Amino acid sequence: MSRTKVAVIGSGNIGTDLMIKILRLSDTLEMAAMVGIDPASDGLARARRLRVPTTADGVAGLVAMPDFADIAVVFDATSAGAHKANAAALAPYGKTLVDLTPAAIGPYVVPAVNLDAHLDAHLDAGTVNMVTCGGQATIPVVAAVSRVTPVPYAEIVASIASRSAGPGTRANIDEFTETTAAAIEQVGGARRGKAIIVLNPAEPPMIMRDTVQCLIGPADHDAVRASIEQMITDVAAYVPGYRLKQPVQFTPVAPDEPVHTLLPDDATAVTTKVSVLLEVEGAAHYLPAYAGNLDIMTSAALRVAERLAAAKGARR
């Protein structure tokens, strides 16, 4: 069976980890190009050692490569600002772009929640956005609650090791909070979403931890718990280090607690706070195991591209 040729733009931590995942784990994707702008980057050096074609001339260099026409999927692991320029430059060529930046161009995709809904629309061209690391970790939980009962408000806190936050992550902090909050609503199903990121400076570095809190009205707590646990299993199928840190918690909301400031104006009264504590351990293919925040992005992007490739193959 022929493999779908792909390119990775961005030779930093995320792009390099994604390249290694494709080479080690994928039976359906073929690394056709590693693209960077720094000829001395470790990512380009590793790609050359692994016999992956490279260019240090950015998207212009990618377009000029001899096998560019055969590349079907392009991953962008740069930054939100760079992705806008990259997407514009690649638009005339009909490639499918999988965006690992919080640029919010194209629909938000969280594989365990809504990938199937976007397969047909992006088989030949277009951009899908992988939200953010915090979004990939927490939005499935919000969606798991909202498929059982309405969620007027959901808040997530993503705590990642400071050492795992490179220049691109730090430059995109504002985009992280805005994009994740929007996706909590659009993909997770919450009426109102809020996202917070914490860069934890602890040494030795701490594993990625995420807290999800949903405000809900009267509901079957056993059904909510079962839905969350099933979703954890679904995500762990492509992110093996993804797990519950402790059992799901249900806390009554007192009638006089001022949660109304968090809710939409027309929201019904809430009675319960659902708290879910998660951790994400990386697979350490390239990045350290504590960098689960980066691993979940590359794992989710790999799942999206493999499903796109499978759908293309089935259509032939």
Number of helices: 10
The residue fraction in helices comes out at 25-40%
Mean pLDDT: 95
Distance between the termini: 12 Å
How many strands, what sense, and barrel or not for the largest sheet? Answer: 6 strands, parallel
Descriptive tags:
single chain, 316 residues, alpha/beta, six-stranded parallel beta sheet, six-stranded mixed beta sheet, 12 strands
Explain how this protein is built.
With 316 residues, the chain is an alpha/beta fold. Helices cover 38% and strands 22% of the residues. The chain is built from 10 helices and 12 strands. The protein has a 6-stranded parallel beta sheet, sandwiched between helices. Strands 7, 8, 9, 10, 11 and 12 form a 6-stranded mixed beta sheet that branches. Strand 5, helix 5 and strand 6 (126-129) form a beta-alpha-beta unit. Helix 1 (13-25) packs across helix 10 and helix 6 runs parallel beside helix 8. It is globular and about 65 Å long. The two termini are 12 Å apart. The mean pLDDT is 95.
Compose a concise summary of this entry.
By secondary structure, this protein is of the alpha/beta class. The protein is 38% helix and 22% strand. It has helices at residues 13-25, 42-49, 58-64, 80-90, 111-118, 133-146, 167-171, 173-186, 221-236, 292-315, and strands at residues 4-9, 29-35, 54-55, 73-76, 96-99, 126-129, 153-161, 192-200, 208-216, 242-244, 249-252, 272-280.
